[in-house]
Amino acid sequence: MALNYYHIFKKVREARKLVIKGITIAGSGHPGGSFSMAEIMGCMYFKFLKYDPKNPLWEDRDRLVLSKGHASPGLFSNLAVAGFFDKSELETLRKFGSKLQGHPDFKCPGVEFCGGSLGLGLSFSTGMALAARIDGKNHHIYTIIGDGESDEGQVWEAAMAASKYQVDNLTVFLDRNFIQQDDYTERIMPLDEELVGDDISEMWKNAARWKVGDKWRSFGWNVLEIDGHRIEQIVKAVNSALQTRGTPSIIVSRTIKGKSVEHMEDNPKWHGVAPNPQISPIINLELDCQFLISPSIIAGDMANLENEVKRAALARADFIHLDVMDGVFVPNKTFDHEKIKQLRSITPIPFDTHLMITEPVKHVKNYVDAGSDIITVHVEVCDESSFGEIHDVLRSNDVSVGLAINPDTELPSWSEKFIPGLDQLIIMSVIPGKSGQKYIEPIHEKTQRISKFLTERGFEGLIEADGGVDLNNIESCFSDGARIFVGGSAIIGQKDVRATIVEFRKKLMHARRKLLIHHAHTLGGNDLVNKWIDLHEVGKKKTELLQIAKEAGFA
Question: Fewest Cβ atoms closer than 10 Å to its Cβ: which of 21, 337, 380, 506?
Answer without folding.
Answer: 506
